[in-house]
Design goal:
By secondary structure, the protein is of the alpha/beta class. It has two domains: 6-238, P-loop containing nucleotide triphosphate hydrolases (Rossmann fold, 3-Layer(aba) Sandwich), CATH 3.40.50; 283-310 and 323-510, P-loop containing nucleotide triphosphate hydrolases (Rossmann fold). It has a six-stranded mixed sheet, sandwiched between helices.
């Protein structure tokens, strides 16, 4: 009989209106990286939340090293050596890295906090596992990739031996993903065992030993990664073959939908400008993609264009109208839709239900209110139509509170609302972040349909494969400026990468590159 470090047997977890885990069994061997694969809403995060003590299952048992254990809360999980890096990090932004790592496990002497030995321990762990991070920096001042390192160090500081990674690469750059894979392999060498929730099949093939597949809350099967392939896994995950997108050539017109002129946006993190004198145009009938490593000004550029931040100088013209000083609603009414990079901060009102979130750009329009009173029947009807069209999965349909939905289904809701606006310009920032292959396929088709309907699409993506698949034209940003304009049919990921790290600059952009 095979020995497993963790066994989750016949787990059932219910929420109002939905069975999230229906008789699921998962077994983790010591010293392996075991992937948990499934569509958005398949029950992956719920199952891991049961193991970490965030949820108590209605049925089933958990064993560690063959012994039945009871996990009622995260403290029980930590006592058993189980740690978890959540998809949305559980960090206090105004605390330092060190303060976050020791939070809840603070060392004391005679009732007073003592951090000298702890500080040394954290520094040794960061060195040992190649997780270098400034332990005195505040969380709000470090990158997402660095925040993830803090979450990993929290587990290592608590000496957890079973590490759960919930969609760890969803918010990382390609370079940070490579680093994380190296870190995970080092953790295995040091005797850890890893449960890796993901929907990125290429990453599972690269780093995992076995993979368990869930679909709509049910167990589909467990296979050895060495004995399967991406096509077989994707079919197990979504129940059908995934087709590659077929994109017809763009029918780009001379109609300029968005004209960005000499845009400069200041940085909140340093004295230099985050965006420095950037100009470009997006025409009707094209997908223009801005590529770059995170932190090179793409976020601030979009904040300036969409009105989330004030610009320092420059001009933004949308559909022939100067919207530089316009409010966000004025920009929306003038034909701008925006899928933001941070769905919690800018995309949803988390304590509103799904119907209310889907109506955020409609409720003030004719038909959605009567003499100042909201027409809830109309809003509910609108919501149900979008839920069906975009396959948004939730326990209570339109009445589901947005906060309780899976990250992927939250993203689907935002995309549904923004495309439904029928705007002339779609600004899509990381639109497929956190989505499974089936959902990505659908979103890509929708973006192409927007372009083919003679609309302009401004796409920001860190996924080079997505950049090359979708874009008709590529601009590369480095250090707050445009450094290249590329034809996706005539370039390679390697060439894009050289521009992304600043190793190359096209001659026509060198004139604008001065000191910042």
């Amino acid at each position: 009989m095979e020995n497993y470090i963790i066994e989750m047997n016949n787990i059932r977890k219910e929420f109002p209106g939905i069975v999230a885990n229906d008789d699921i069994t998962l077994k983790l061997r010591k010293g392996e990286i075991h992937a948990l694969l499934g569509e958005n809403g398949a029950g992956k995060s719920t199952l891991m939340s049961v193991l970490f003590g965030l949820y108590v299952p209605e049925k089933g048992e958990i064993r560690k090293n063959g012994e039945v254990v009871k996990i009622s809360n995260p403290n029980d999980a930590n006592d058993l050596g189980i740690g978890m890096v959540h998809q949305h990090f559980k960090l206090v932004e105004v605390f330092t890295v060190l303060e976050n790592i020791i939070l809840g496990a603070e060392p004391t002497k005679y009732g007073f906090l003592t951090t000298k030995e702890t500080r040394q321990k954290v520094l040794e762990l960061s060195e040992k596992f190649n997780l270098k991070v400034d332990i005195d920096a505040k969380i709000e001042d470090i990158s997402v990739g660095m925040q993830q390192r803090v979450e990993i160090l929290k587990m290592l500081y608590r000496e957890n031996e079973i590490l759960i990674f919930d969609e760890p690469t969803a918010v990382l750059t390609p370079q940070e993903i490579d680093e994380l894979i190296k870190i995970m392999k080092n953790l295995i060498i040091e005797g850890k065992s890893i449960l890796f929730i993901s929907h990125k099949l290429n990453e599972i093939m690269a780093v995992c030993d076995r993979v368990t597949v869930l679909r709509k809350g049910k167990y589909i099967g467990t296979v050895d990664v060495s004995k399967t392939n991406i096509d077989e896994l994707s079919k197990m995950m979504v129940g059908r073959k995934i087709d590659s997108i077929k994109k017809t050539p763009a029918k780009k017109s001379d109609e300029i939908v968005l004209d960005v002129r000499n845009l400069t946006v200041s940085s909140k993190l340093h004295k230099n400008n985050a965006v420095n004198n950037v100009s470009f145009q997006v025409n009707a009938g094209e997908i223009l993609c801005i590529a770059g490593i995170e932190g090179n000004g793409q976020s601030e550029l979009i904040y300036g264009i969409t009105g989330l931040e004030k610009i320092t100088s420059g001009q933004i013209v949308l559909n022939g109208k100067d919207v530089t000083k316009a409010s966000i609603r004025e920009r929306n009414l003038n034909g701008m839709s925006h899928i933001p990079e941070d769905r919690h901060k800018f995309g949803l009102v988390l304590d509103f239900n799904l119907a209310q979130n889907l109506a955020l750009k409609k409720y003030f329009q004719e038909g959605y209110h009567n003499h100042g009173f909201i027409n809830f029947d109309k809003i509910h009807e609108h919501s149900e139509a979008l839920i069906k069209q975009y396959d948004i999965r939730s326990g209570k349909g339109s009445d589901t509170i947005a906060r309780s939905m899976s990250g992927g289904n939250q993203q689907k809701a935002i995309i549904a609302r923004e495309i439904d606006c029928e705007s002339k310009l779609l600004v899509a920032v990381q639109p497929t972040r956190g989505l499974d292959v089936g959902a990505i396929e659908n979103i890509h088709k929708m973006i192409i349909q927007e372009r083919d309907a003679h609309k302009a699409v401004l796409l920001i993506s860190l996924e080079l494969e997505e950049v090359l698949d979708l874009s008709d034209r590529i601009l590369v940003m480095f250090n707050g400026q445009i450094v290249a304009e590329l034809n996706p049919k005539k370039t390679t990921p390697q060439e894009i990468g050289l521009y992304m790290v600043g190793a190359k600059v096209q001659e026509k952009f060198t004139g604008s590159r001065g000191g910042q």
